[in-house]
């Protein structure tokens, strides 16, 4: 049982240290290679026009955002 508690304490200590470092540096979390931006790709899909499914999803999200904006609190 002592091994489990020690392991948990070490993991908790590492997570807290990472959180404190993130809070003080105010940097975004990024991968080790810089992600797609590192190779010059601005977005995951380099299509000139979004597909129909994405257009529908964006329209649905826009309607939902408009609906939420018009709600009386």
Overall average residue pLDDT: 80
The low-confidence parts are none
Molecular shape: extended
Q: In whole angstroms, how far apart are the ends?
A: 51 Å
**What structural class is derived from the secondary structure elements?**
mainly alpha
The main sheet comes to:
none
The strand count comes to 0
Quaternary state reads: single chain
Order of helices and strands: HH
Instruction: Please state roughly what percent of the residues sit in beta strands, choosing from under 5%, 5-15%, 15-25%, 25-35%, 35-45% or over 45%.
Output: under 5%
Number of helices: 2
Helix content: 55-70%
Structural summary, described in words:
This protein has 73 residues and is mainly α. The radius of gyration is 21 Å and the shape is extended. It has helices at 2-25, 52-70. This is Na(+)-translocating NADH-quinone reductase subunit E.
């Amino acid at each position: 049982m002592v091994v489990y508690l020690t392991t948990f304490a070490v993991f908790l200590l590492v997570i807290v240290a990472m959180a404190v470092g993130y809070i003080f540096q105010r940097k975004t979390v990024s991968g080790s290679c810089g992600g797609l931006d590192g190779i010059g790709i601005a977005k995951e899909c380099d299509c000139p026009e979004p597909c129909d499914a994405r257009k529908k999803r964006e329209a649905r999200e826009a309607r939902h955002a408009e609906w939420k904006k018009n709600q009386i609190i």
